[in-house]
C-alpha cells in the first residue's frame, strides 16, 4: 500500500509540473528525505531540475515553520494570506486572528502593499 501511495504522489506531482511547464522543482518537507519518492520524481520528470530547498538556503524541515511565520506576518499587517489565484477563493482574505493576552494588543499600522519577495538570510 505504501508503494502505491508513493507512486501516486510522484505521478500526481509530475502531472501538475507538466501541466504548468515546470522546469525546476524545489522539494522540501518529509518527502525530500524519501529516496524512493525522490527517485520516482526523477524518473517521472527527466527534463526537470529537481533540487532540495536545502540547496537554495531554506531548510527543508523548516518549511512549515517558515510558512506560518509568513502567514503571521501577513495577518499582523492586515495583508491577505489567501488569494483567489492560489486558493480558488472568491476574494483575497486575511487569515487567522490575533488574540490579545493579558496586556492590551498593540499591532503595527497596516501596510498598503504586500511584500513582493521573501528573503531568508542565514546568520
UniProtKB/TrEMBL annotation:
Provide one Gene Ontology biological process annotation.
peptidoglycan turnover
Q: GO molecular function of the protein, one example?
A: phosphotransferase activity, alcohol group as acceptor
InterPro entries for the chain: Anhydro_N_Ac-Mur_kinase
Q: Does the keyword ATP-binding apply?
A: no
Q: Which domain of life is it from?
A: Bacteria
Keywords on record: Kinase, Transferase
Looking at the keywords, is Kinase present? yes
| Full protein name | Anhydro-N-acetylmuramic acid kinase
Amino acid at each position: 500500500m505504501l508503494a502505491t501511495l508513493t507512486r501516486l504522489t510522484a505521478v500526481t506531482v509530475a502531472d501538475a509540473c507538466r501541466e504548468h511547464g515546470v522546469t525546476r522543482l524545489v522539494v522540501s518537507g518529509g518527502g525530500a528525505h524519501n529516496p524512493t519518492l525522490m527517485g520516482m520524481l526523477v524518473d517521472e520528470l527527466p527534463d526537470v531540475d529537481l533540487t532540495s530547498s536545502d540547496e537554495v538556503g531554506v531548510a527543508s524541515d523548516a518549511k512549515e515553520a517558515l510558512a506560518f511565520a509568513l502567514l503571521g506576518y501577513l495577518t499582523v499587517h492586515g495583508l491577505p494570506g489567501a488569494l483567489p489565484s492560489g486558493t480558488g477563493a472568491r476574494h483575497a482574505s486575511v487569515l487567522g486572528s490575533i488574540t490579545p493576552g493579558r496586556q492590551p494588543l498593540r499591532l503595527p499600522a497596516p501596510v498598503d502593499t504586500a511584500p513582493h519577495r521573501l528573503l531568508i538570510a542565514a546568520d
